[in-house]
Amino acid sequence: MENKVDVEEHSDVKELIQQLPKVEDVRQLKHYVVSNIETFHADNETFHEDFRTHNEIIRRYDEVLAQKVSVIAMEQESNKMNELIETKLADVEEVVDKINEEIATSNKQFSAFEETTKTDIDEKIAAQIKIERRKGAQNAQKNSALNAAIHSEGIGQLKTMM
How far apart are CA 108 and CA 112, in angstroms? Predict the structure, then answer.
């Protein structure tokens, strides 16, 4: 009987365990995050492919213009196109950088969540086990003292100990 967990301690452990996310919930979250990352990656690849295609279209357009206009007019048009491409490329790179940062942040948060959950649970369970062991040892000492008192001193000594 002395090695059994009392009701209050059992309910504390039960509450801690009930606060944990279910394995299926973590798997669903992981699936959701991974699928979003895969979707983003596919969209990003499509965007870059389209960007390359547009660059080729612009280059070909520049070649056609070069054949039809004077050298000065061609230089002006080329400069305008280059500025436009650089501006658009800067905008695209900024968006890609922001999205990559968000992905990195999401990955860090997921890893931190996973590690925190593991560590917190392990630490709480280990602390509860230590408490239970101490209580068991204290109860064993009390029982030993009571048994010794009964055998050596009799019931009169037992009453004085209580």
Answer: 6
